[in-house]
Structures are given as structure tokens and as C-alpha cells.
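All the exercises in this workshop are built on plain-text protein records. A record pairs a protein's sequence with a compact description of its fold. Read left to right, the C-alpha cells trace the chain's path through space. Once this layout is familiar, the rest of the handout is easier to follow. Here is such a record, shown just as it appears in the course material:
>
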Amino acid sequence: MSTYVLVHGSWHGGWCWRAVAAELRRHGDEVFTPTLSGCAERFHHASDQVGLQTHVRDITDLLFFEDLTEAVLVAHSYAGLIAQAVVERCAPRLAAVIYLDAYVLQPGQKGFDLWSPARREEAAKSIAGGDPYRKPFSPSMLGIDDPELAAWVAQRLTPHPLLTYAETIGPETNQTAQVPRSYIHCTEGPIAATFDAIASALQTRGWPIERLRAPHDAMLTNPVELARMLRTVASGLAGSTATLPRF
């Protein structure tokens, strides 16, 4: 049995993992699906002060207060930034980290660095205008084509705090470089190319890469296949002594 902490990306909440969590629990795994501050059912706590470190604390506090050890941290999309910081703070509590179609940055970079100049300019204008939240993509942009599922998801997506993309990632330490990590790239859908570039760059650095024939929101469109891959990847990483190159 494994313990999974599944962390959602921009605009989502813990709700997006319910089918994946059910599948993992069916195999006897323990699963936590926290909702980040200012998101989903916690959107009413939103403020212009919610940043990346707020979300990092959400997850580090969960690991501490639940007293989790040997946890498999799964980070989707934006949550890759959270995972990079959490592993620095909580490496002894983690068995592995799996990045699911996620942002992964080099030290000194921030989430905005992965955006186009036009999107960065739009975000800057939004913040300057007193609207510090990023409007959700449409479900179709996330690869959700089924009309019924798309409508259900659209009702639950909430704006995401822009400050979370503005904080830089710090350097790795020798300890955290030894935490086993893998990357799952979802190869289908309108934004697949964005994350293919990240996966390809990591592969050249020696990261193990898995590819899933599913769109970006695979936890909603392909939960059974994703749960199966998570269990396979986690099993392969268990007890791994391979050290990835440090950034």
C-alpha cells in the first residue's frame, strides 16, 4: 500500500481527483486530495496575498499534521512549482515525486517565465488593475471534449491567484536531489506541445519520462489509466537510489 498526496493545478481543487482517488483506494492505497488556499471550495478565502509560498505551506502543513512518511507527491500542471519547493522542505517525508504534465523550473525562474510575452503582459495589466486572479481556461482547452463532463468541470473551475507564478524557485540541495522523481506527459489535446517541451528538456537531463495518451486534465478524462500509471511509476521509483542531476 502506498500513500498519495495529489495536488491540483490552476483553477481546480481537490474535487478533480475524486475518480483517480477512488481507483487508488480500490487497490488499498491511502489518498489525500487537498484543495489549495483561494481555490475551489476555498475560493471565498481568496485574497491578493495568496502566492506560491501560501500553497507550499498548504502541502507542507498537510504532510506534517497528518504525520505522513514515505508519501508519493503527485503534482499536476502549476502544482509542479509547489512540488519543487515542498521537496526542499519535506524530503524526509517523501518516497517519490511524480510531476503530471507539470511546470518544472530551473533555479531563479518563476512560473511567468513559461508564459508567452503577451500572456505575461496581460497578467501584469490584470494585477495593476486590481484583479490579481487568472481566469480559467475553457474545458476544451484542457482537452475535455465530452459535453456533459465539460459542463460539470466548467461549473467548478475558479480563478487562480496570479502571484503564485511570480515567485522564483530556489536551488536544489544534495538531499533533495536524491528524492526519486518522474514526469508523466499527457500527449493529447490543445496544450500538449507546451508540456512536451518541458518533458523533452527533462529527459535530456536524465529524468525518467512516461507518456500517457490523454489530454492535460487526464485525471478527469482518463482516471483509470492515470491511476494505473501512477501506481506503476510509484512502484518503479520505490527504493530507487538513482540521483538525478541537480539544477
Remarks:
- DSSP finds nine helices and eight strands in the chain.
- The chain has a mean pLDDT of 93.
- Residues 19 and 212 are 17 Å apart (CA to CA).
